[in-house]
């Protein structure tokens, strides 16, 4: 006896349709690409340039930013930047360094600001018990390719 065409059993497909997953991933990628720049609440500090190698850090450093007008911003291990005064800087950094003695402390001063503001922060950090302090800068141009200044130096 012959079976009719309607009674045939179809084989099950063992393939997965990945098109919906790709669509969802692309939408998530676009969402993350749009929202990531908004999450950076940065302070506009123009760091001086230098031709030095960057240091490799094991932990997130404590960052102290000194603006051109002398305002101080503190970032503790990747947390949000907060505006602080000198006394709060000493207390917070001192307590944080006592809890994490291997954490590095970096000071970034605005290139347009006065040297006195950065020097005062360095003295405050020393009073807070910080043994080692680093200075931040931006990578400069390779040697021999820098811009000439008005007095002929490079």
Automatic annotation (TrEMBL):
InterPro entries: ExbD, Tol-Pal_TolR. It comes from the Bacteria. GO terms for cellular component: plasma membrane. The chain crosses the membrane at residues 21-39. Its main location: membrane. Gene3D superfamilies: 3.30.420.270. The Tol-Pal system is composed of five core proteins: the inner membrane proteins TolA, TolQ and TolR, the periplasmic protein TolB and the outer membrane protein Pal. They form a network linking the inner and outer membranes and the peptidoglycan layer. NCBIfam families: tolR. Part of the Tol-Pal system, which plays a role in outer membrane invagination during cell division and is important for maintaining outer membrane integrity. HAMAP family: TolR. Belongs to the ExbD/TolR family. This is Tol-Pal system protein TolR. It comes from Rhodanobacter denitrificans.
């Amino acid at each position: 006896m012959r079976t009719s065409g309607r009674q045939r059993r179809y084989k099950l497909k063992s393939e997965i349709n990945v098109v919906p997953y790709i669509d969802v991933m692309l939408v998530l990628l676009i969402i993350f690409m749009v929202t990531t720049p908004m999450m950076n609440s940065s302070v506009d500090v123009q760091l001086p340039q230098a031709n030095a190698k960057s240091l490799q850090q094991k932990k997130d450093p404590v960052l102290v930013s000194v603006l051109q007008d002398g305002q101080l911003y503190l970032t503790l291990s990747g947390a949000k930047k907060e505006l602080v005064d000198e006394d709060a800087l000493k207390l917070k950094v001192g307590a944080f360094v006592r809890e994490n003695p291997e954490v590095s402390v970096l000071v970034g001063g605005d290139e347009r600001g006065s040297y006195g503001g950065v020097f005062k922060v360095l003295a405050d950090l020393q009073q807070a018990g910080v043994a080692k302090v680093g200075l931040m800068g931006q990578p400069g141009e390779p040697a021999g390719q820098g811009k000439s200044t008005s007095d002929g130096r490079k």
